[in-house]
Amino acid sequence: MKYAKVTAIVRAELLTTIEQRMVSEGVNGMSVTEVRGFGELKDFFKKDLLTRHVRIEIFTLAERADTLARAIMAEAGTGESGDGIVAVLPAQQVYRIRTRAALEAPQPRDDTD
What would the pLDDT profile of 72-113 be if each residue is shown by its tens digit? Predict the structure, then answer.
């Protein structure tokens, strides 16, 4: 099974919207970290060039990575500088620490009960 890591650095104020979209896309877990940095356009009039964003990291099946990246861009895009970036990286293997086992493809849910 091939996995990918979707990493996005986006405006902090859009996190809730992105989180809701990821849940609607079937994501069962993601990590969020507050980060500071600067990108393409810097505000040279400020002493501190760094701005506050959040980094979202999601491990997913490789075949779903592009869909999730596009969903993040749809929710995070304002058309203004500072919208952020999304990267999709291959993940050779993903392990669950508790069981020490490699993750397998999620089984389809049977919601008929």
Answer: 999 999 998 889 999 999 999 999 999 999 987 665 555 554
- All structural domains of the chain, each given as residue ranges with its CATH number in brackets, are 3-102 (3.30.70.120)
Separation of alpha carbons 30 and 59, rounded Å: 8
Predicted confidence at residue 43, as pLDDT, reads 61
Instruction: Tell me which amino acid residue 15 is.
Output: L
Amino acid at 21: R
Could you give the residue ranges of the DSSP H alpha helices within 2-85? 15-24, 62-76
In 46-112, the DSSP E strands lie at 51-61, 84-91, 95-96, 101-102
β 51-61/31-37 pair status: antiparallel
Question: For the whole model, what pTM was predicted?
Answer: 0.84
